[in-house]
Amino acid sequence: MKIEHESLQIESNGKRVTYSDITEKVRQIIQATGVQDGLCVVSSQHTTCSVIFEEFVHDKDWNGDELLQVDLNHILDKMIPRQLTESDYLYPGAEHVQFLEELSQQKADYPNDLTTILNADAHLRASLFGSSQTLIIKEGEPLIGSVGYIYFVDWDQNRKRNRTCNLLVMGN
Which residue stretches, if any, does this entry annotate as coiled coil (predicted)? Predict the structure, then answer.
């Protein structure tokens, strides 16, 4: 059995929920491993991101977002409104804020802007959708049908950043 680890770097837009179509990159990674029959796990290591399997939609809004994604965002905005102030949700509590302030002093790439942690909505959305998808590989191809696409979703709308999507391909 062959086991391969790969990762993708994905940039979020920081202005709205970011849906990144990673289907072709996942397909290329699977083909590069040479695995003909097995599994591919596509996973986010970030607590405000998800990997979803959804139908590709040709129609887009003015921002370039697929209409099915826009519809999903509208429903989620009603269920889990965006956190704009510290009183919108219980998260983050005082201890977590202190932890994050200390983290920003230790890590140069971590922002020292407390408004960036007003993202309880992103954490809750990611919890609902989960962090990964498992795909079946048959004859070197993911079994995702003709309209099934794989999207890496960054639910956090507070700042632009680079995200990592991990892949594990295993099989024969």
Answer: none
